[in-house]
Amino acid sequence: MPSPLNLSHCVADSLDSGLALNSPSIQEWPTFQPALRLGVMASGNGSNFEAIQASIAANALHADIRLLVVNNQGCGAEQRAQRLNIPCQLWDHRQFETRERLDHALVKAFLQADVELIVMAGWMRIVTPVLIEAFPNRLLNIHPSLLPSFKGLDAVGQALEASVRISGCTAHLVQADVDTGPVIAQAAVPVLPNDSPESLAKRIQAQEHRILPWAIALAGVKWRQSSGIKGS
To answer: 1, 10, 104, 116: most buried, per Cβ within 10 A?
Structure first.
């Protein structure tokens, strides 16, 4: 086994070469009987949403997306859902007087779809305890930084402004405070000398596509075990 010093050199060499470092590493995928029932929330392009579905189609993630919710009509995520034949509902936040009223509507929609776990895959709205408490430890978010660093909006820009050498992404359970909660999986991504916000964001997003389905599987195992559901 490498010494701590040699191991740290291996990590540094991997990052310097432009490779990402994932933790925990993706190994054998768990099997769920029955399949995990997922709800997904997205506001924009929907590439993470499609990455989840691609992992399901590849027989890696044993799950079924029961419902996609979007808050922007005509967004990329909605178009992807139509192409993938996945049920999608539009809940425009502009039509609700408060965040809590929107979240009450979301809770009702997800309960009607009989979902177990909800994944915030680029949901650009702050959620409230209404949603969090309805699905305790069953609400997962992906964020483009190595939390707890660079919470909130424009995490990639924050990382570049701080001149860090390593950034990345984090899949974590959602709590009331923004971008907090237990970490499920992370991927470290090197910040290169000539990086722009666009180039760094592109490399981070590629790792989001890798770790988010894996984090769903890990969170699903914990949920099924805590709930006493057999077959996971």
So the answer is: 116
Residue with tokens 């991927």: 187
What single letter denotes the amino acid at residue 29?
Answer: W
pLDDT digits (tens, 9 = 90+) for 4-48: 333 333 334 444 444 568 899 999 999 999 999 999 999 999 999
In whole angstroms, give the CA distance from residue 29 to residue 41.
23
Of 211, 76, 69, nearest to 143 by C-alpha is 211
Strand pairing partners for 172? 141, 183
C-alpha–C-alpha distance, residues 139 and 135, integer Å: 6
- 47-57 and 197-227 are packed helices; what angle lies between their axes, rounded to 10 degrees? 50
d(CA 24, CA 40): 23
Whole-number Å distance between alpha carbons of 155 and 98: 26
CATH number of the domain at 90, please.
3.40.50.170
At 112 the pLDDT is: 98
Q: Quick one: DSSP state of residue 164?
A: -
Bond from prior residue into 148 cis (ω within 30 degrees of 0):
yes
Position 15 in a domain: no
- Sequence-ordered list of residues with C-beta below 8 angstroms from that of 14, at least 6 positions apart, any chain: 21
Q: What angle do CA 201, 204, 206 make, to 5 degrees?
A: 110
Tokens representing 107 are 């809770």
Q: Which sequence positions are flagged as catalytic?
A: 143
Tokens of 209: 């596509």
Query: What average pLDDT does the segment 180-204 reach?
Result: 96
**pTM across the whole model:** 0.89
